[in-house]
Amino acid sequence: MRFLVKAEVSLKRGHFDPEGDVASKSLRDLGFSVGTVRVSKAYTIEVDARDPTEAKALAEEMCRKLLANPTKDDFMVEVLVIEGRTA
Question: Which EC number(s) does UniProt give (predicted)?
């Protein structure tokens, strides 16, 4: 079966996020009342797996091996679509 999964990779708390800081300042300059802004990357990945559990496990392995740096990044994975249907 083919699954569509989303992997979101973001900096761990305590790591400097210059893009987030610039976005936060710029939003305030535009008149928006915002606090901290954190930037993350989202990957949408098609995977072949037996079931949603395996699809999620495969995406988590991809994050551990390539997409996320364990020293500075956290990640979360969710199954979005199962062969054209919403999960």
Answer: 6.3.5.3
